[in-house]
Structure formats: C-alpha cells, structure tokens
Amino acid sequence: LMLNAPLLFIVTATFTEVPKDVTVREGDDIEMPCAFRASGSTSYSLEIQWWYFKEPARELAHELAISVPGSRSKVTNKDATKISTVRVQGNDISHRLRLSGVRRQDEGVYECRVADYSDDETQEHKAQALLRVLSRFAPPDVQAAEAVSHI
C-alpha cells in the first residue's frame, strides 16, 4: 500500500547539551552546561533558569516523577533556590553554570529549566545533575593501623 502524501518531519524542541552528575573535591571549580533548541523556524522567546535543590537526588526524582507533565513542577520552590535567569529571542539558548571554589554545602541537585513562551501555552523543559563534593583532605587511616600493630 503506497500513500502519495508528503513526508512530514516534526522536529521537537530538545536539549542539545545537558548537565551531568559530577563529583569534585572542595575548592575545585566546575561548569555545568545546558543548551536547548526550539522546534521550527519562527522566532521564539526562550528563558533558561538554573535552580539548586539541597535534598538528595532520589527524593527529588520521585517528586518530579509524580508531577503532571507539562504542568508547573510539584516540587515546591521553598525547597529550591533560583541561581540565575537568561532570556533570549530565537531558537537556541545556552547558559553554563559556573561554580568557583566549591564547598561541601554546595552539594545537591542542580536543575536547568527552559521555558518556551512561543506558543499560547508555555512549555517547560528540565534537565538535572547531582553535584557531590568530597573533602579536599580526607584523613588517611594509616596512623590508626600503625597504632594497632604496636599493641
């Protein structure tokens, strides 16, 4: 069965670069990338926001999983801190989050949210990464082992 209809290629809006989980030592500098491309050729109004969540990733992932797709996130913003916002007109947006001299208290989930205001209905897209921060000087257990051997 052959249909003489033109093929329609639907290009969906998508992340072209997403942040990845990372483990660093205290004092290190890191960058988390986030880039997004809207579908179509019309001019878009895109906004990118970086948010920080203190709670562990698995709890957050569960909360996000039960939220309704397309609606505002059910994760309350009282648990989150907005770090930055960038807005552009066009099809592409990117914003790298840079953290210098990372501290233990910076550990948590970082979320890149992209809001697409081009249609009547605002579309929101999200990508997340977990940042783990290790102590710069973890004390070695060598001394404890030597003390035991002398007893």
Automatic annotation (TrEMBL):
SMART domains noted in UniProt: IG
Any GO CC annotation of this UniProt entry: membrane
Entry keyword Signal: yes
Signal peptide: 1-16
Membrane topology: Single-pass type I membrane protein
UniProt keyword annotations, A-Z: Disulfide bond, Immunoglobulin domain, Membrane, Signal, Transmembrane, Transmembrane helix
PROSITE patterns with a match to the protein in the record: IG_LIKE (PS50835)
Source species, domain of life: Eukaryota
Keyword Signal attributed: yes
Annotated ranges, domain Ig-like: 6-128
Compartmental location: Membrane
PANTHER family, per the entry: V-SET AND TRANSMEMBRANE DOMAIN-CONTAINING PROTEIN, V-SET AND TRANSMEMBRANE DOMAIN-CONTAINING PROTEIN 2B
Protein name: V-set and transmembrane domain-containing protein 2B
